[in-house]
Amino acid sequence: MKFAAIALSTIALASQASAVVLSYSQPIAATQWTAGQEATVAWTNKCNDITGNTTFPITLNEEINTYQVEVPNVGPIGYLDCKRSGSTKVKIPATLPQGNKYSILVVNGGNQSYSALFTILSTVPGATNTAATSALPTAPTAAATASSSVPSAAVSTAPPKPTTTNGAGALKAGSYAALAAVAAIGAMAL
Fold first, then answer.
1. How big is the chain by its Cα radius of gyration, in Å?
2. What does the alpha-carbon distance between residue 114 and residue 112 come to, in Å, rounded to a whole number?
């Protein structure tokens, strides 16, 4: 039993040690970026323990109905390279509407690192992103479920995947592994 607990805690700690979740110093909640200009993404922890690919796309997200959804038709606004210093420049698209519900996301392996929500200033009026809002999952209506009509030939795209329901500065990966390690160590003490 003790061998199993030690093995489990070792695996859990190894999993936690390999998790590289970024902590951002830019952008933060007070940050204001301007559409059409360059901005800085900065992180405070080291991610040089990553092996293999060390360059990851930085995507722009917008909070819609409490979900962080990738802004459609934007693509990566820059790339984060863990072998370089703790900052990089990104280009903010000029076509973005003004808003205070933007965030960035970097995914490295299975780890998702979100920034806090921040503001983008723009001459484009702020409006709800109807394309992203309409693409969010909704419950079917009685009329839609009772209908047997054939869908039209209109082109459709896959809806953006909601990635989180909070504005955390960084989502902690490996939390379950750490919990398992603590439980295993606690069990050994009994």
1. 21
2. 6
Contact 21, 78 (CB under 8 A): no
Give the relative orientation of helices 175-189 and 2-18 as an angle to the nearest 10 degrees.
Answer: 150
Residue 79: closest CA among 71, 87, 68: 87
Residue spans of beta strands (DSSP E) within the chain: 24-26, 32-34, 38-43, 55-64, 67-70, 78-81, 87-91, 99-108, 111-114, 118-121
Instruction: Give the single-character DSSP code of 65.
Output: T
In the numeric block, which tokens belong to residue 51?
């092996």
pLDDT in tens, 73-121: 999 999 998 877 789 999 999 999 999 999 999 998 788 999 999 999 9
Q: Are 43 and 25 in contact (CB under 8 A)?
A: yes
| DSSP-based three-state secondary structure for 20 | coil
Identify the CATH class of 21-133+157-172.
Answer: mainly beta
pTM, whole model, 2 decimals?
0.59
Query: Domain map of the chain by residue range?
Result: 1-19+174-190, 21-133+157-172
